[in-house]
Specification:
alpha/beta; eight-stranded mixed sheet; four-stranded parallel sheet; globular
Amino acid sequence: LEMGRNNRWFHGFVRSLTRNRSGLHEFDLDFVRLPQPPAMLDHVVRDFVGRGIQLVICPGTDAMLRWSEVCRDIPTLYFGAHPENHGLEVATDGAVSGVRLNLPLIWSFENFSLIRGLLPEVRDVFIPLNLASRFAFPGVRANYELFRRQHRASCITGPSIHLGYRSVYFLAGRMGCHYHEGPFAELAELAGMLREIPPGTASAVLGFNDLLLCDNALDVILEIVRERDLPLFWINNVPVVKAGGVADFSSDFEKVGERLGEMTLQVLRDDVPVGGIPFAEDPGERFTLNLQRCEELGITVHHQIRERFHRVLPMAEHGLNRLGTPAASPRH
């Protein structure tokens, strides 16, 4: 899929192969979007085994957790993260290694406080959560269900015992904001929750990539944040911010791809077992600011705040490059 080849991690992956005297010409490489139903995942595994696939690269925690439940036979490299470190169980699987990412916005108060730097009047932080994604891991999903039995509200507001991302609640509180989580199972719930958010820059909406796993959820979010003049911040997805967000806080995916390229050569060229390759630390971060969206919302970007961003988009860039959860499967 061209979608996969356009991702920044893949650019770094190719560069790493070239730097190590290899290249794509040495591999039979496919991009495959992982289906949601387990039975269809089983079909993908059988197909990969039948074709002699020797290595799978699996981007994203949701995809990795689903993949690991059906496939233990093919060595796998993974890169991803979760706000509360869900998914670390794959690190103990002898057939899995990769890069464990940071979530730059929410794992550093210095970074999180950039929201206040951009929105001096912000009072409330809202996070929509996709219940169909593995980001809503079983214990948290059960906690949300308990909340729904007792309350009609769309959002769970801290310091409720039903919060899923308690660490983000602490960050919001330290910044002087109220914190709200909006779990949803269908688009109507998502839209209803977003339309209850007070309009304007006293509110901030934070998005994770679990939202992209719900068909049309991103369209709903982008439409409503524009309709209600809400500032949208995202983690690990620059194209979303280009399409209508204020800022993205990402890992440096080109460097992530470089590390994956090195690991791939260790496995396929040097015959190193995946279990013998330690998980790598996140190699860096890159922040992107959409200055045009700031101007539309009346946000003043002071020089010291602007300097914190590695890339500043001076004009709106239209046309979202949709990201899914592909699994690249090199075959030597």
